[in-house]
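Structure first, sequence second, as always.
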């Protein structure tokens, strides 16, 4: 599976948490109807 990831490594929980924290923060107040892919470049 790692070979199919662009980053060639698994994501860490803190990296996923950072995306969630961003979306829940005032910094994302202008983000609407978006999909934030946090998958390390994996395309099934």
């Amino acid at each position: 599976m790692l070979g199919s990831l662009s980053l060639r490594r698994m994501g860490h929980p803190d990296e996923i948490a950072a995306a969630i924290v961003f979306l829940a923060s005032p910094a994302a107040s202008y983000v609407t109807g978006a999909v934030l892919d946090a998958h390390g470049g994996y395309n099934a």
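Margin note: The chain is about 25% helix and 0% strand.
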